[in-house]
Amino acid sequence: MNESLPGEPFEYGPDEGTQLSVVGVPQLPLHDIPAGQIIATMDISNPYESLLEVRDAPSGEFIASMDSPTDGIVATGRTRRLPDAEWPEAVWNEVHVAGLTGWARAAHLAPTGLTDDVTAHLIDLLGKRPVADTLIDLALIVGGAMATEEPRSLVHTVTRPIVFEGLGEVTVDVLNIGDDSLAGFRLHVFAIPEAEDWMSEDPGPFTLRTVERTIICHSHRGVTADGLCV
Fold first, then answer.
1. Is residue 1 scored above 50 in pLDDT?
2. What does the alpha-carbon distance between residue 158 and residue 107 come to, in Å, rounded to a whole number?
3. Do 205 and 131 meet the contact criterion of CB atoms below 8 Å apart?
4. Which of 17, 38, 90, 142 shows the smallest number of beta carbons within 10 Å?
5. pTM of the model
6. How distant, in Å, are the alpha carbons of 67, 99, 115, 137, 174 from that of 207?
7. Alpha helices in 91-209 (DSSP H)
8. Rounded to whole angstroms, how far apart are CA atoms 118 and 211?
9. Cα separation of 60 and 95, whole Å?
């Protein structure tokens, strides 16, 4: 069966049954074969709905949503590398999700582990409690503080910012931190808007309240039962 697929088997991929998350992007296409036709999209951008929303492509018709990491994306154990593609676009993982089986870029699939509060650590890094005009700006400040220069980390917001009942929320992923066990961090940022009317068109600026950090692990190494990266 592998012989009919593009590329060649690649040993550095997640084991069969590994629970994966979309990382580093708000939406990730699911393809029929590596670099083939898009059959669905996996979307983590809407924090109101769920942890993952799956829609048909190209129609956009809703297929399923999942509100638990253990109900989401599951690796089949098959990974392929396309020799003519640029790294990291060369590597693809086959996964099961919402009753579908398809392929997605390995660079944006990873298991996640423990979550802890890193607010105090972040304030120490920055020397103060950060304030920004928008939630996106604040997320990038927070992500930048946790990033590395060498190698240069990738910092991307992955959920749409929301303000509800006087509390703003946004999520930012920091990847490529040059750690043998950690692929990066997912930072869930909570902030207080200055405006008394949080439903106003421009409720900012926003002052950081708390940051919850979830570790992102390398998919070929996995996560222990205690939620630590291997």
1. no
2. 15
3. yes
4. 17
5. 0.91
6. 28, 42, 22, 11, 21
7. 119-126, 135-146
8. 6
9. 20
